[in-house]
UniProtKB/TrEMBL annotation:
Keyword Signal: yes
Source domain of life: Eukaryota
Leader sequence residues: 1-16
Pfam families the record matches: NAD_binding_10 (PF13460)
Keywords, comma-separated and alphabetical: Signal
SUPFAM superfamilies for this protein: NAD(P)-binding Rossmann-fold domains
Name of this chain's protein: NAD(P)-binding domain-containing protein
UniProt entry tagged with the keyword Signal: yes
Alphabetized InterPro entries for the sequence: NAD(P)-bd_dom, NAD(P)-bd_dom_sf
All copies of domain NAD(P)-binding, residue ranges: 6-210
Family statement: Belongs to the avfA family.
Length: 255
């Protein structure tokens, strides 16, 4: 679970963190992550499956007063298509809308996946795009539209809010369980590949820390560049992997 890996990184920066969990039995595990950390950790039990509206998400935003929101929750393929849509689409979109509507929230980072797009990335080959489409229309047929809707909503509403807000879609390939080696490929990567969960957490933390980061999509795989260098390069160069997507269409649909 990415939450377990990113929580200590956030707390090590002396930040205050509210971790939202569904199952009360998870609380001791999450609470233990705050031991001997300079940051302050609070745990809020709330089922994301029950979050259907902006107002419901807003109540959590209002009670926790965050500056940054990280949405790394997901159904994990459990519970069927209904649960995937409830968490990966509906709950995420509700939190996107609530966050964008809250002036004190200046960053929203969602962990999506590399194939969440409607059009071929200009730097992909036709073969890569075909394989991506086959996965999206096959084993990911419920996951794909859920993640795509959340990504497009975040993109549109971030653009509408304008400067001072960064809506970031971090888009890893297949996740592996390793802690991470601190070496990645970030930005315009190949269409397929894997990445260590620990490195996803490190990249997410790096993006949250970056002062100059703007709204963007960033693909992520294992690679040869340090996390720090990759984040710095993508932020300074304004890398954005939504190139080729219909942003105007997103604006019409979601704003």
């Amino acid at each position: 679970m990415l939450k377990i890996l990113v929580t200590p990184l956030i707390l090590s920066r002396s930040w205050q963190l509210t971790s939202v969990i569904r199952d009360p039995t998870q609380k001791p595990t999450i609470t233990a992550l705050g031991k001997d950390q300079p940051g302050k950790l609070e745990v809020l039990v709330s089922s994301l499956e029950e979050i259907k509206t902006q107002a419901q998400a807003q109540s959590i935003i209002d009670s926790t007063s965050p500056n940054y929101v990280v949405f790394s929750a997901g159904s994990g393929g459990k519970g069927g298509p209904e649960r995937t849509l409830a968490i990966d689409r509906d709950a995420c979109i509700a939190f996107v809308r609530a966050s964008v509507a809250t002036p004190s929230v200046t960053k929203f980072l969602v962990v999506s996946y590399i194939g969440s797009r409607k059009s071929k990335a200009p730097w992909w080959s036709e073969g890569e795009w075909k394989a991506c489409q086959e996965a999206n229309n096959g084993v990911l047929k419920s996951y794909y539209p859920a993640k795509l809707a959340a990504d497009e909503c975040l993109t549109a509403l971030s653009a509408e809010r304008g400067t001072g807000f960064a809506g970031i879609s971090l888009r890893p390939g297949s996740l592996t369980e390793q802690e991470g080696e601190g070496k990645v490929a970030l930005g315009q990567t190949a269409a397929r590949g894997s990445v260590r969960r620990g490195d996803v957490a490190r990249v997410a933390m790096g993006l949250l820390e970056s002062e100059g980061v703007k709204s963007c999509w960033l693909d992520l795989l294992d690679g040869g560049e340090t996390v720090e260098g990759a984040v710095r390069r993508c932020v300074s160069e304004g890398i954005d992997c939504k190139e080729g997507e219909d942003v105007e269409g997103m604006m019409k649909e979601w704003t």
